[in-house]
Design a protein that fits this description.
Blueprint (H helix, E strand, L loop, with lengths): L2 H9 L4 H8 L3 H9 L4 H19 L5 H10 L6 H14 L10
Helix pairs in contact: 4-5, 4-6
């Protein structure tokens, strides 16, 4: 993301308007981001992901139903699409589930 770069250059005295123009976006977009760099959705997803990683670390052999129950016990109830996308992103960043072969 280029917004932190704009903030760093502004601290060095380079005008925000000039930097935004060179990078191809409006100063208003930068100031909107600067007022709240982390959205509520991103913050909620981060809490969900941390809870999922903690639960998965404790019990790696259990699947998504166990993880969904752990979210509810932690008070982090998510709608199905949000839960699905969070579990997918969590799966991409966390250790793989332990699978045993039968037979």
């Amino acid at each position: 993301m280029t917004y932190p770069l704009v903030r760093e250059l502004a601290a060095e005295g380079i005008p925000v308007r000039l930097t935004c123009g060179v990078l191809g976006f409006t100063p208003q977009a930068f100031y909107k981001w600067n007022a709240r760099p982390v959205s509520d959705r991103d913050l909620h997803d981060a809490y969900l992901t941390n809870a999922l990683i903690d639960a998965h670390r404790d019990e790696p052999e259990f699947g998504y139903r166990f993880l969904a129950d752990e979210l509810e016990h932690a008070g982090l109830i998510a709608a199905d699409p949000a839960r699905r996308s969070t579990m997918i992103s969590c799966n991409a960043t966390s250790p793989r589930s332990v699978r045993t072969r039968c037979g």
